[in-house]
Structure formats: C-alpha cells, structure tokens
Amino acid sequence: EMLKPSGVIAICIDHRELFRLGMLMDEIFKESNRLAIINWQKSAAARPDNKHVSTSTEYVLVYAKDADRSRTRSLERQE
Fold first, then answer.
1. Which residue in 22, 51, 63, 74 has its CB near the most CB atoms, within 10 A?
2. What is the pTM of this model?
C-alpha cells in the first residue's frame, strides 16, 4: 500500500534466497508485474568462498505495482 500506483521496487538478493523471494514477490505483485531479474556481478574477481561455483553474482528483482502504469528506461552503456 505504501508504493504509489506507478511505483517500482528493486530488491537485491544472493543465490541462496532468489527462488523464495521471487515466489513471494510474484504472490504480492503478481508475475505479470515482474519487470526484470537483473544479474549483478558484485565483484570482478572470483570469490573463493564456494567450492563449486563462484559467488560473485547477486540478483536484483524488479517489480512494478502496475506494469502498465510504470515507466522505466534504459541507460546508455558506459565503460
């Protein structure tokens, strides 16, 4: 209720909770209002804290209260 009708929310999460948070956000905002799941590389070097796969990536889930009323735009790529 605190998000205005054209509002957008973005939440950053790691791989351990991505699935659960996605399910929760789909339930709250509806899957049709999911604008994106952005893969964010939080560090350039591989992280040695995982035996099998590097954990240098997090995810940003982006949802709109109403996708038809929300306005987003792309930014120019930079170095």
1. 63
2. 0.78
